[in-house]
Amino acid sequence: MATMQYSIRPAKRRNIAQMYRISISAHADSYYDQLIPADSLADFRKRYTASVRGRRRFTKNMLRRLNSPNWHVLVASDKKNIFGYTMAEIDGNILDLKGLFILPVYQKMGIGSSLMTSILELAESNMTARLLVLSENEVAKKLYAKYGFKHIGRSDSLFFGAAQDVMER
Fold this sequence. Notes:
The protein is α+β, with helices and mostly antiparallel strands. It contains 5 helices and 7 strands; from the N terminus they run βαααβββαβαββ. Helices cover 34% and strands 28% of the residues.
């Protein structure tokens, strides 16, 4: 099998539509339905089902991020298509990771690792990298542990009713 050629680069406005499709697909084709409480699943599915309203909300939020000096949004792409993206916000000496999304068909190909490595390179030596992960998501916790993240506690915020842990490195 040939090695897939792609690059990691900052997202651009023209990438937002593809990023929205990746977000919808990554959430819909995930195992979140096993991690989110049953009484919150309908709201989760509604939020991550493609819709005009959802696309508008996503676009507005992504434009705000792309236009902010504190936000960094990276995409993995070849010359035509985006396969995944990640984003982080710098708040003082904290690099706050805000998600890693890969199209399901491109998972387990190293794209997520490339995006994670690239976003973590933004952290200066005096910075702490932080992220939230669903408390029951052992797969994600193992992945983040490979990058030096350690569990430091439970977050006060819930993700569609699911508890979240705070991890730092």
